[in-house]
Amino acid sequence: MAPGAAPVAVDAMGGDHAPTAVVQGAVDAARQGQAVVLVGHEERVRTELKRLRASASLPVEVMHAPEVVEMDDHPGRAMRSKKANSIRVCLELVRSGSASAMVSAGNSGAVMAGAILVLGRSGHVERPAILSVLPAVKGSPVLLDVGANVECRPVHLVQFALMGDVYSRRVLGVSRPRVAVLANGEEATKGTSLTRTAAAALERSSLRFQGYCEGRDLLAGDLDVVVTDGFTGNVALKTMEGTARAIGVLVREALQRDVPSKIGGMLAKNALDAMRRRIDWREVGGALLVGVNGVAVISHGASDARAVGNAIGRAREAARAHCTREMGEAAGLAAELLSIGGETRSSQGRRRRAPLEA
Questions:
Q1: Complete edge-to-edge strand list for the sheet that includes strand 225-227
Q2: DSSP state for residue 215 in the 8-state scheme
């Protein structure tokens, strides 16, 4: 079976609006020709399909999964105790080759824990990361990690950069991705020991490394891959979401202020609608979990049908690129790049970095 030819497994029970919004998004994707498998409580899923009058000819299958990982469940324990949960069943379909990828708007920690447990880490990857495509002014820059790893070591950031480079080339079609490390300034003296060590290693790599970038550079489109720890990346991503929402509210209020403003808004409606779509997180659909042996896309918990449909499309693109093994192999270069710079392991097994020259 060719990569990406199998259906996408969709967690029908994940998210704030499941299963209604999830089933709707999957049906919309199926009407565009994408085969899907809806995994969840069969009776509830079929009730939604009936409500939507989904034709029997649509490429939609239903697989029963009687258990659900709740948002307040402990991810690792839930994966082991609820072995028939919808997230795990989706991942098992990917592992067996019955699905080309999986999508879930449910417990993101459970998706990550389940992916490591069921799919396993790819190649030399120490820690999988969550990669998000940003709605930039131009291009399609990616940011990782955006939440999987709150605390990181230099080797993790270097591996993120190497995997992000593969994704940008193979999935987004960027011939020579420009890579940067997120920091609190562009000068080499800025940042922390984590960012300085990672940046020094990336300088020695064959990547098109651009050095440090600041938060204001994320949406400019002058970079293709930006790496950071999961804590910083998640804060940055949520800040961008909130900013986009605030801009929408402010523009709407401004256009309702008086009669001339309302007329101007009517005249600019098409342009404003295009701008809203450009900055709407639902258009991105979901974030890809990279560094595991399979394609898993994590959607926003508040995903509606449009977001779910777009997440399925993103999963399909990643599956067709078939680059998980390449990411795993690329990650193996990180240890070599760091060892050249003098990072060693102490007798306790923790990494220790030789001082960098000023």
A1: 60-64, 36-40, 8-11, 101-104, 296-299, 286-290, 129-133, 142-144, 225-227, 178-182, 208-213
A2: G
Upstream peptide bond of 19 is cis (omega within 30 degrees of 0) = yes
Are the C-beta atoms of 303 and 25 separated by less than 8 Å? yes
Q: Which long-range contacts (CB under 8 A, 24 or more apart) does 65-73 make?
A: 65/13, 65/39, 65/40, 65/41, 65/89, 66/41, 68/13, 68/40, 68/41, 68/106, 69/14, 69/106, 69/107, 69/110, 70/107, 71/106, 71/107, 71/301, 73/107, 73/110
Half-sphere exposure of 217 (CA within 13 A, CB side): 22
Site of tokens 């009687």 = 66
Dihedral angle of Cα 25, 31, 35, 40, to the nearest 10 degrees: 40
Q: What is the distance, to the nearest Å, from the Cα of residue 122 to the centroid of all Cα atoms in its chain?
A: 16
Structure tokens at 14: 């994940």
- List CB contacts of 59: < 8 A, sequence separation 6 or more: 7, 30, 33, 34, 35, 36
Task: Select from 16, 283, 348, 340 the least CA-distant residue to 132.
Answer: 283
pLDDT tens track of the chain, all 358 residues? Answer: 444 479 999 999 998 898 999 999 999 999 999 999 999 999 999 999 999 988 888 999 999 999 998 888 888 888 888 889 999 999 999 999 999 999 999 999 999 999 999 999 999 999 999 999 988 888 889 999 998 899 999 999 999 999 999 999 999 999 999 999 999 888 888 889 999 999 999 999 999 999 999 999 998 889 999 999 999 998 998 888 887 777 777 777 777 777 776 676 676 666 656 656 655 566 667 899 999 999 999 998 888 899 999 999 999 999 999 899 999 999 988 888 888 765 543 323 333 333 333 2
Report the alpha-carbon distance of residue 172 to residue 215 in Å, rounded. 22
